[in-house]
Amino acid sequence: MNTAFTHWLMKPNEPDWPSLVGLFARPSWMADAACRGEGHGKYVIDVRHAPAEAVLATCAECAVRADCLAYAMAQPDAVGVWGGTTERERRAMRNPAVA
Question: pLDDT tens-digit profile of 43-53?
Fold first, then answer.
């Protein structure tokens, strides 16, 4: 499920989506992601566990890894592995003083 949509569902006072196109639109780079079609299950992990080596290996070889990471960095509520980083790693990247 789209993370932005999940975030919106959990906040009933958020403004309405402008259209269904806006709801389901995905950045064009996602079509080239190495993880495309693998399902989100192995990328959305419990924060207490490290991602599997296979997940990180997929990210390491991905042609759109930088785009993926930039996308996740712009969305602080993004869960799971994005651009080869975990939620914890992205939090530390956003606020190095806390890490």
Answer: 887 766 777 88
